[in-house]
Structures
1.
Amino acid sequence: MIQIYNTTEEINIKAAELFVAAAQKAIAEKGQFTAVLTGGSSPAGIYKLLASDAYKTKIDWSNVFIFWGDERWVPLNDDLSNAKMSYATLLSHVAIPSENIFEMYKDGVTAEEFAVTYEQSIRKVLGDDGKFDLILLGMGDDGHTASLFPGQAVLEEQNKWVAAYYLEPQKMFRITLTAPLINKAEKIIVVAFGEKKAPALKEVTTGAYNPATYPMQLIKPVSGELLFLVDKSAAGTK
């Protein structure tokens, strides 16, 4: 399902409203809310809204558990860290217990070793069904999402929930949730705006199935909902 908005601000408001609604529903029904954050520049406005008094007071943050969809394998104080951005815009401004936050990085181990540990953390919180309540995703100009990049072997992963690998074009290790785990989620929200996203979004949503080139096409919820929140530029209607 695609929803088209006039401005980025409208997208941010809708995403924040959906986050709050999902949190309230999950906590009311089962006592906890499990959410996956995304990195990059796209979600910063959403996180700032959630950290504002108008939104943060509507969520019982003591029962929120935060994970990430992917991460560059850099220290948490590195400007490239998705976690650093998330803390600066949201997590440092709400009353969420530190033990409920699962950063996708740890000193002293390899990315591949930590991928195993991260999957264990997910299983401890979610159980073996691995069903997150809400996953936020972005989409790159090339149609990638999380660290599922075009042409990479991770696109073929069927068993691991978390994978790490060296991304040669970027000369760095990445760690990511895999498509099979993402697709278990109750709700997946993809945020995309700007005309640079238009060609990939068109291919992802209406083009032939070619996930090796457009990995976003791998995201097909097993039983949950997939929602694209895009602006007119990304939708190609402006």
Note: The CA atoms of residues 10 and 54 lie 16 Å apart.
2.
Amino acid sequence: MCEPNVVGDWQEYDEHAGLRVRVHRLENAEPPRGRDDAAAGLTYFCLRVTVENRGERHYGIHLEDGQIDIRIGPDGESAFIDWRNSQFIEGFDVYPLRRATAVIYAAGPEASLGQVDVQIQLRVEEEWTDRWLWAGGIGLAEGPSQPGAGRECLAHEISNFLRDQAEEGTA
């Protein structure tokens, strides 16, 4: 893992021709089956992990408990992952030109959600892939930055640009 991806980036797997993964749609969201009692006082958010096969053969994939790590805030504290409300990819064959998406619900202190790091280690055909990291945050400015706002606004502009580029290919 040389450098992190930005939320919305695709990461290709060299060892599995045509297979790629991305973390995207990081946003505030309430879980569909109600809040977990352990998340009292925390702010819920949701993200999606999509695995796409652009190769010529199908792959059996797994993305489940223990293969996703979410860290929040400047100290990289662990987010609460709501396993009951999340939807994983458990033993699914992704055929050529098809996708499979996991929907993950997590929670953390609202002040820490401006910085969210998501690490994924996919299992393909019973083999573990490399771990990859995506960096993003909730509440990043969607519009143009204010002049003279400094490095933080430049990071927001870059993140928004990359997210827009990644979303164009999914419509």
Note: Residues 151-168 form the longest helix (18 residues).
3.
Amino acid sequence: MDGTLIDSEKVWDRSLVEVLRWLGGTDLSPEARRETLGGNLRSSLAIVFREAGVVQTPELSEQAAHMLVERTAEMFEGGLPWRPGAYTALRTVREAGFATALVTNTGRYLTDKALVGIGAEHFDVTVCGDEVPHGKPAPDPYLRAAALLGLAAEDCVAVEDSPTGIRAAEAAGAAVLAVPCEVAIPPGPGRVVRPSLEGLTPADLAAVHREVREQQAA
């Protein structure tokens, strides 16, 4: 979702910086910003506390989490722009009859707010980071999504923008179509890299799956 379908990473960035400053810090370093991409609430908060140089006590963690979620929710409710080609690509694969799942590290509360604008009707199932034992980069979210669709993860193509998400999808066994947003994604045996989702066709997705499996078999 974040950074793949909608341009929400900048929203998360603003919310994280607000929490950081509340903790007495100033700004996230470029390295810390990259670390937060595709992360979940727990991992992102740990980075913010580290950057602020503040011990992460349970009480402070609860307050910071509440602030982060509510501030982000306000901005999500204001509407979020689509990533280039994402809306058309999503409609195209649905019209072609593909089973689709939204797999995100974002929690259910915020995901449901974002789905108002994205359109929940585009997905057969949605899996959020707080609904599995371990979020991305663990494979749990993708394994759950594939199971809910009645498919093996190996028969699926995951569309991802972040290194964290790509590691999760590849660990689950899915072929990956990587569409970079905030950071460059190098080629790899489990993925095909594409500059954007503009012009994506069902045949392109089939080609991604075939190319990845051929690379892995070589």
Note: The mean pLDDT is 92.
